[in-house]
Amino acid sequence: MSPNRLGEGEGAIRRERILSFTFDGKRYTGHPGDTLASALLAAGVRVVGRSFKYHRPRGILTAGSEEPNALVELRTGARREPNTRATVVELFDGLEALSQNRWPSLLVDFGAINSLLSPIFIAGFYYKTFMWPAAFWEKVYEPAIRRAAGLGRASLEADPDTYEKAHAFCDLLVVGGGPAGLAAALAAGRAGARVILCDEDFLLGGRLNGDRHEIDGKGGGHWARQIAEELASLPEVRVMTRITVFGAYDGNTFGALERVADHLPVPAAHQPRQRLWKIVARRTVLAAGALERPIVFGGNDRPGVMLASAVRTYVNRFRVTPGRRTAVFTTCDDGWKTVFDLLDARVDVPVVVDARREIPAALANEASRRGLRVMLGAQILDAHGAKGVGAIDVRDERGRTLRIAADALAVAGGWSPNAALSTHLGGRPQWSDAIHAHVPGDLPRGMIAVGGAAGDFSLAGALRAGAAAGLEAARAAGFEAPAQSPPRVDDEAVGCAPLWFVAGARGKAFVDPQHDVTIKDVAVATREGFQSAELLKRYTTLGMGTDQGKTSALNGHALVAALTGRAPSDLGTIASRPPYTPVAIGALAGMHRGAAFKPCRLTPSHRWAQSRGATFVDLGEWRRAKAFPLEGERDWKRTLVREVRGVRTGVGVCDVSTLGKIDVQGPDAGIFLDRVYANVMSSLPVGKARYGIMLREDGIVFDDGTVAHLAPGHFLLSTTSAHAVKVLQHLEHARQVLWPELDVQLASVTEQWAQFAVAGPRSRALLERLLRGAVDVSNAAFPYVACAEFQWQGRPARLFRISFSGELAYELAVPSTWGDATVRAIMTAGEDLGVVPYGMEALGTMRIEKGHLAGAELNGTTTAHDLGLGRMMSVQKDYIGRVLAGRPGLCAPDRPALIGVKPSRLDAKITAGAHFLRIGARPSLANDEGFVSSVTFSPTLGHWIGLGLLSGGPKRIGERVRAHDPLSGGDVEVEVEVVNPVFYDPDGKRLRD
Amino acid sequence: MRIECPFCGERDVSEFAYLGDAGYRRPPADSQGLAERFYEAVYLRENPAGPHQELWYHAAGCLSWLRVTRNTRTHEIIAVGLATQAPGS
Question: Which residues in chain B have Cβ-Cβ distances shorter than 8 Å to A883?
Fold first, then answer.
């Protein structure tokens, strides 16, 4: 069942427990500590996926998150997740995985015919092949490409799991839990600094788990676990595993994704699947290690070809070998570790091909002692085998080619620092001739790279640099930190000669196996002039896969360099961008989805409205009662007509608490208001309210509302519900930035006061009963636009005689905690007056009947003139917007201006958004004369009415035009008559009685 | 990005609203060529690559308008002061 599991040694798996899982429906077993990749390898599964373009069989290349090939679909149903890397999937009992991008099955894939069509799929093929005919793109090419070149399939069901967000702050963030990172965390942690250490693996130790090292006389993995124990005992140190620091952001902020439950079948109760961290760190130690590079040769994508360090990880950590006859192809000393680890695990190594003509004597001696077949100055040309490596062609130093049987091949091309996080803020890595790779260049402030991430590939160097960086961070945070002697480790050879690709291969040689970019593709791109790193990437798609070219970009650049006679350093680099590894959208959304997508603000009367069977509508963040249908009232129009008539003939009540309320106090409050409103406010006597408009400095209307003068030096403004926050920001800007010399203070009191409109001819009678003399509401004592502050039932209350409905009306304000009691009291007091609760529908209908403005008219493009409010613009004072409102373009007589419309045939309906056209004019942009902004069925008039902005505005009253609406699906055209926008009681008599 | 509000301390950028160039001066009502001067004040703003004085509003905090000196190349926050205080004071 597990032919490739090595017989002895524990590694980091627990053999006593057996975990069962399926891959493509077939059952396999593994152990705790396995990844899906190691368990598949142990079972002898070689092909785990099909490639993107050519559908070639692919296996496992790496043992980490840089994996380009082994992408699988994990789990089933709603939890199905595509493109997970088998190399980082922690095995659990019952795991279900499927291979991707194959049809009908993994081993027999018809898409592989694409391989024969490879001349079509050459570099830039999207740009060349699918150019014409244009009509083919949407109908033929795109669907075909999407079907053929897909990766995994996303689940189409809603994700049943939750995701959450968390914040953390620390003196030192250590990225990577290998030897350098552990040493850094330990040094800073012992000094008392707040340390967070993050590692993407589920086992701390990094290469110490994959390699055989001795530290202080103990095995490297043992040392790592000992340090982890000490770190866990330090109260200010937090060690997190299964977490990837995926991005560096401004202000020493880092994004990290913790996979809380990805290693479990389903998350534990009340646990999220993943947690998105925002970590703010004074200092950062980048100890993310290094990534091993492949060497590009013919058939280098065949299952069984694996990075040499990954082979060691599988052998030492997972006790698995990728093959029983594993050849090694190296260009550096590091690859020889794989040779000896394989031999010590009793795996046959048929040949070691080292591209260098000379190797250190110690290696040569050890090789001859063990009787190894070594070919120096040789290269592997091709790997053969349909479903995995079966043989390799080696070209020896004299140019002769011979074929050697092998069922796996370990490839060691040298190491490149994993410097991704150092480039996220714009830093560019620099070329190092010493290691033939890029090392971190200008690092973000507060970040230091150590160990492999800094290009220092020796264990002793990593431990030393890590400890020094940890100490330095602790001292910078103000902690006393004595230096400590570093642990004892052996020296190791880290020599490396560059070898990026092998010339003269016969088979396809893949530079980027995930996107199926071959040497030939890169050569074509180079010939066609795409010779810089950035152009190469876009033209060939090299490095644009889910792995973002972690194992392919540098080889591609070196290839272009060789083809154009330059050094790899001349090509520049591509700065990697966040995220380092893919982050699910669900994790970024966190809790903010569904009902929690945005805050829901409830009005003070919400529960009362619910109890009355109200329907609700979300407007911005507010949830407001839309209508109060009576039982059996199924038609919305019947409810609307009843509510509007109830107000117009009797009395109604509506919660208007959502209007913004801004308290303005101070000796200069009047002067201040004069400067921010277009009309004069300082002349407003105490006890009166006035309608006002605010402009933006560019002359466009910003907001409207009322100003009430409650007491000397004390005003209360109302704003539209939508603009409450923006108006306060605007006023604070005026107060703090424009005129800091004015003695005036502002405070938002929107949520502190509940406010109810009591509207209709019987509203006075209702309030007399309700307030019982707390304030005299007679017309003489409390005329139109009066306002008062008073005590009612031992609590503060405010009354305003203002009207949005056009009827005799009041607005009563009480502290918001008394809102519910107050609306119930209003209903009780008005019971025998026939008081009707009314909602947003009736409110909106009555405001259109009165020609009042709302968001559709105050839309950020209209001037006071456009809205018929030109008279309000004071000529006696300066105010925000005055000067630029006078620009010729904003005063042009043909600008669309506010008018009312009614259908010529009274049974016709008008739609909002319909555009005005002259009768007989063709519908075109040139003939456009404005649009309908608001519509309603008017219960008072018995037909549809609308407000709109029409070129020429009120001058055209009496004219007939067409309202043209090709989008709504109903009548495309309705003939309408242009009328006065105030449909109801144009003289305002009803307000004043 | 993090901004050190003089009242609230160092806070995440998501708490702040951005306005732009802090060099904006509203022309006095009695100045000559008002329309032209307002046009320039409203529409023509400095947008340098490097240190730049900007107005930020601590919308989810103390509602202070802040004069923030930020390097637009690196997003480094160099200095933060209250907008009520003239620059340099």
Answer: 27, 34-35, 38
